[in-house]
Amino acid sequence: MQIKKALLVLSLLLTAQTFAQTSPAAAAAKSYRRMHEHEIINEYVNLLSIPNVASDTPNIRRNAALISQMLERRGVKVRLLEVPEAPPVVFGEILTPGATRTLTFYVHYDGQPVEPAKWAGGDPFKPILRSAALEAGGRDIPLPGKGEKFDPEWRLYARSTGDDKAPIMAICAALDALNAGKISINANLKFFFEGEEEAGSPHLEQIAEKDRDLLKTDAWLICDGPVDQTRQQQVFFGARGVTGFEVTVYGPRRELHSGHYGNWAPNPALMLSKLLSSMKDDDGRVLVKGYYDGIEPLSETEKRAFAEAPDNDGLLKRELGLGWSEGAGKKLIEVINLPSLNIRGFVSSSVGATARNVIPSSATASVDLRLVKGIDHKVAVDRVIEHIRAQGYHVVETDPDDATRLKYPKIAKVMRQGGYNASRTSMDLPISKAIVAAVESARGKVVKMPTLGGSVPLYIFTDNLNTPCIGIPIANHDNNQHSANENIRLQNLWDGIETMAALLTMK
Amino acid sequence: MQIKKALLVLSLLLTAQTFAQTSPAAAAAKSYRRMHEHEIINEYVNLLSIPNVASDTPNIRRNAALISQMLERRGVKVRLLEVPEAPPVVFGEILTPGATRTLTFYVHYDGQPVEPAKWAGGDPFKPILRSAALEAGGRDIPLPGKGEKFDPEWRLYARSTGDDKAPIMAICAALDALNAGKISINANLKFFFEGEEEAGSPHLEQIAEKDRDLLKTDAWLICDGPVDQTRQQQVFFGARGVTGFEVTVYGPRRELHSGHYGNWAPNPALMLSKLLSSMKDDDGRVLVKGYYDGIEPLSETEKRAFAEAPDNDGLLKRELGLGWSEGAGKKLIEVINLPSLNIRGFVSSSVGATARNVIPSSATASVDLRLVKGIDHKVAVDRVIEHIRAQGYHVVETDPDDATRLKYPKIAKVMRQGGYNASRTSMDLPISKAIVAAVESARGKVVKMPTLGGSVPLYIFTDNLNTPCIGIPIANHDNNQHSANENIRLQNLWDGIETMAALLTMK
Fold first, then answer.
1. What are the chain B neighbours of A318 within 8 Å (beta carbons)?
2. Residue A6 reports pLDDT greater than 80
3. How sure is the predictor about B6, in pLDDT bands with cuts at 50, 70 and 90?
């Protein structure tokens, strides 16, 4: 009931969003799309039907081959960028005589691993069209025939519909529209379609270094992520960094009978509860000493962007069934500009049917940290480890032996995980303004996000390659990214084609 | 290394425990046992070979039949006490003309469920003799032939070796010894061997009520549980009550991307950590308001018993790898006379290989409470629920609906579990003193425990049947009760036979 009300408010908001589309390329893309929805969806279904988990080498190569063909068919000069044991990057170029600017479109064609049993249709690589989101009662519908109407609220379900094959399809359809409308391309364009982003981009740094000259560009356009929760187009200028650790604390060497020893043998679940509780206050502020030290301040433009961003918090809380939020009343868009500390999960012994009357012998929590500009990911974990020490813990890296157990009342094993730093491109750069202007010419006023809450290794582009990096997402926010039943709302794909048309024709 | 040192200290302590055995029956039992170890162990192996999980009806009945035969062969008049859908109680009587006292021996012949894969031998019902505890490097040895020597430090491994078939075997062997030594029985003896104690004795109250007249007795002798950790014989006069609950707190309706929403969407694992942390201080004292109210004070005799009990805490800490204990320095034997609050386990999302970068949608803890005389088990849970409310939670009994989620920032679902109250028999009763004297005549000075830390539904005997109830355990404390690799140390079985001989011949 509450969800339906939220959706109603949302659609009223959307109806109010009328604007004059000033981009001729976007207008041409709209006309072209209206005439070719059937072909676009058919080609997209074809692309989505190839499984694309990064570790599935044969299928990853089939994806790369098909995408190469799709680009070549549109006049793009394509090659694969390879390093050993990595999915290839599909790299394409459109060189424009006399161009004064080079723009590079980043997309990734791999997707998150899948658990088919959790998908309504049973097969994440067999795309299914539905009349609405499953959560809103969407039912399966057959693909319309040529010339039949597509409802823009329909959704196409399959892995990577939203994250991140949609921009590939949008770029291809936009190139078709430009060609059909004889609209010229004005810049040098490069396409960099990665094949292992969801596996953590383990070779991206190496490829960027190896092909440094090839990748010279005036800006990276990161076509990934969702649009705003109001469905308004957004442009983002950075992403939080990420790291994490797993912490284990210890009780008795073996699980003990909770009657014979309860009240006496220390309980590691309680110890871990106290340790985790010490890390954040009731408003969600991190209490680790120095946790916020060194944060690079936001510019006036970035602060203004917050003020101008829509306040979606009320809608989101209704959608998510939340009676409150962390951050002492600050908006979501504001708090993602702070580093976070999040318990991904914790486990000690069992609950439910398998709970036993025991004092557990250990308790483990997995924690991730999201970072902002000015905080190094290794330093952030160092600070948390110091905090754990300050709570009276002896910190180790492997399970403690007998002597260690007896010497130190409280022992915490901390297993550090990898990570990378946050990245941010100034909104005030001419290229930043030009990209915002291009997107707005297609889609009207955009939400400008100084940073994404999530993490993308943009530092490789901004810091290693020293290039501005700006994000233009397409997918609906409720696309079930990374989960089962991932989907794209058709209107988001249609909008994406127009956005890409405007960007592809930038001067 | 530390364990070996602890065991060394332990064995030195044990060597020092020499005493004069003043019970002729116990002395006769010792002589008889030394001549018949082979037969005793063979008969015990036979009994242990029948699976005895309470829900395994055919095998439970096979156990009851064999135990009936074992008793009948020793001149005990046996019948089965039955109520529908319950394992039968094997009930036996030896009526003694002119007896002035009736004593009832309680044992349970069922055992905890088993996970064969966790047993070193792979089959919990195929007894294996080992040269020492597995933890101390014990290796499998064949059963000695007739007349061959048994090392008293050997251990016999199988489900219920320690908990709780040992007293059945000890009573049978003691009856043989009395018969062989022509030593007379002086009281009326009853044997009440239950078949579903490990399933929570769901029909015990009903059986006790139905056969109330048959069960008239001057005392219940509860032959269950382990002896002191120093291996000294103990006698206990009560048991803690028990109850529990499961508590779930809620975050977003679905797991959220920890980047896009981390710092804003409330984290239920953190909320649960804070809630659990609020329940106990760093010394383990329960902070729930009124938690200790109404505790029935201990008598002078009971207080003296603490002072006289061995201080095993140092040894235990070494054995368990603990650098500290709860209770602000109080001894284990002392703190089990207080109610406890123990986290049996908690779970929220995942850790380790299956951890995902999410804000979990809920977190659940399973908690058990151990109770002492004067605290009703329902009242104890009421107090904890009040505490949860005092932390700002709206308490519900089922998963909250959308309206509830939005109305209350913090929601806790509390699922109460069943339970029963603590029980305690005065150490000052003549029957209490007589039983202690009988056990000491066989085993030397005993450790007198006002209560067991664990829970046994003794209230059925003490409160419903209004009869004193005194516990005389046999098993070694390190018998892995309830776990895999349960075992009995042979010396504990030998000692048990002598103890039972002394009790069976009480006047």
1. 406
2. no
3. very low
Q: Do B317 and A406 touch (CB under 8 A)?
A: yes
Residues in A closer than 8 angstroms to B406, CB to CB, are 2, 317-318, 321-323
**Among A242, A338, A483, beta carbon nearest to B263:** A338
Q: Does A353 touch chain B (CB under 8 A)?
A: no
Chain A residues inside the 8 Å CB shell of B327:
263-264
Return the DSSP state at B131.
Answer: S
Is the confidence at residue B3, as pLDDT, over 80?
no
Predicted TM-score (pTM) of this structure: 0.86
Chain A residues near residue B326 by CB distance under 8 angstroms? 263-267
pLDDT for residue B145: 87
Contact A280 B270 (CB under 8 A): yes
In chain A, residues 229-248 whose CB comes closer than 8 Å to chain B: 239-240, 242, 244, 246
Q: Give me the pLDDT at residue A18, please.
A: 61
Tokens of A284: 């969600």
- Has residue B315 got a pLDDT over 60? yes
User: pLDDT tens, A276-327?
Assistant: 999 999 999 999 999 999 999 999 999 999 888 888 899 999 999 999 999 9
3-state SS assignment for residue B52: coil
Q: Residue A141: helix, strand or coil by DSSP? A: strand
Interface test with B, best of A257, A273, A295, A318 (most B CBs within 10 A): A273
Helices and strands in chain B, H and E counts: 15, 21
Which residues lie across from A489 on neighbouring strands? A155
Q: For residues A498 and A491, give the distance between their C-alpha atoms in angstroms, rounded to a whole number.
A: 11
Contact criterion met (CB < 8 Å) for A264 and B326? yes
Q: Which chain A residues touch B339 with a CB distance below 8 Å?
A: 263
- Kindly write down the DSSP assignment for every residue of B180-206, as one continuous string: HTTPPP-SEEEEEEES-GGGT-TTHHH
Question: Position B111: which residue type?
Answer: G
Domains of chain B, each with CATH number or no CATH: 2-239+422-504 (3.40.630.10), 241-295+338-416 (3.30.70.360)
- The mean pLDDT of A446-472, rounded to a whole number, is 93
